[in-house]
Amino acid sequence: MDSSRKCAPARTPNRTYKLKEVSKHMSSEDMWMIVHNKVYNVSPILSSHPGGSEVLFDCAGVDATLAFEDVSHSHFAWEMMEDLYVGDLAPEDIQRLEKWNYKKKRRLKTPIYERATSKPEKEFVDSTEVIKFMSRTAFLAWFAVISLLGYLYIQFRKL
């Protein structure tokens, strides 16, 4: 997502909300979430959300910025956010969220995480091992064909 494309409300914020206050709004009649440190009441779009209401319930009462950015929202969706805007997140809670997100990102970059997510290096394959394997396979295939022909020859001789 383009970092310059933040949810910009149409009207000037007249109220700030603390995380604790936002977390109280988790019902289908009164559902709030935070996107880019702005508080939105998403109750009006609960039944018409293209991703389904479950997606909104998962983000109810919390910072949904990452989930919102994870999906490519249309220009229409960004405009619709203007009508759902109710205020800004309190400055002290913005700092708290930034610290939490920073710690979360640092926690993910452990050596185990790096090994698990990195692409494996190309291993050098010894050509002599490949030749040995192919020669054994060819011999077994040849032996199987000769055995089958011998078996068929014996069966036809009995007739």
Task: Summarize the structure in words.
The relative contact order is 0.12. The protein is elongated and about 100 Å long. The chain has a four-stranded mixed β-sheet. The protein is of the alpha+beta class and 159 residues long. It has two domains: 16-117, Flavocytochrome B2, Chain A, domain 1; 124-159. Helix content is 53%, strand content 9%. Keywords: Heme, Iron, Membrane, Metal-binding, Transmembrane, Transmembrane helix. It is found in: Membrane. GO terms for molecular function: heme binding; metal ion binding. InterPro entries: Cyt_B5-like_heme/steroid-bd, Cyt_B5-like_heme/steroid_sf, Cytochrome_b5.
Descriptors:
159 residues, alpha+beta, Flavocytochrome B2, Chain A, domain 1, four-stranded mixed sheet, 7 helices, 4 strands, transmembrane, heme binding, transmembrane helix
Give a topology summary.
Layout: E1 16-17, H1 19-22, E2 32-35, E3 38-41, H2 53-59, H3 65-70, H4 75-84, E4 85-89, H5 91-108, H6 111-117, H7 127-158
Parallel strand pairs: 1-4
Antiparallel strand pairs: 2-3, 3-4
Keywords: Heme, Iron, Membrane, Metal-binding, Transmembrane, Transmembrane helix
Family: Belongs to the cytochrome b5 family.
Domain Cytochrome b5 heme-binding: 14-90
